[in-house]
Amino acid sequence: MKKYPRSELLPIANKIKNRLKKIKGVIRVEIAGSIRRKKEMVKDIDILVSAKNHELVIEKFVNMSEVGSVVSKGSTRSSVKLKKGINVDLRVVDDSSYGAALQYFTGSKYHSIKMRQIAIKKGLKLNEYGVFDRKTNKKLAGKSEKSVYKILGMKYVKPEERY
Fold it and tell me: CATH fold of 4-93, please?
């Protein structure tokens, strides 16, 4: 898959982010993935949204004027290829899961695996929806990234330091 300089994709990502922010019912929007980790070269744009109406956000996203084709479209996620050939992945979650989803979709893959291993050792389960007690399945954290790190007994790690 082709990689692009982050400096080339960041303005495009910000334009999409700002457009998604204006949709009724949207609570928070953030660019995730390797762009958020400030990698020099990136292969795509990842955007996370918390909203009351997931379907509305997906519908507006896939119908943006920059979209060349829709790769996939579901009720909480969608992937498009822009007319410029750049892939953009969108994930829409409830606000109570936003922090966990932001951590998960920012990565890196290795960092996320390490965090899940720590969760398991503590009798917890970590995924993009939050941190849960393994026995009761009760949600313990997930609204903010810092709450996810805290419940795992970890110091918050800045996105650009997640290897």
Answer: Beta Polymerase; domain 2 (3.30.460)
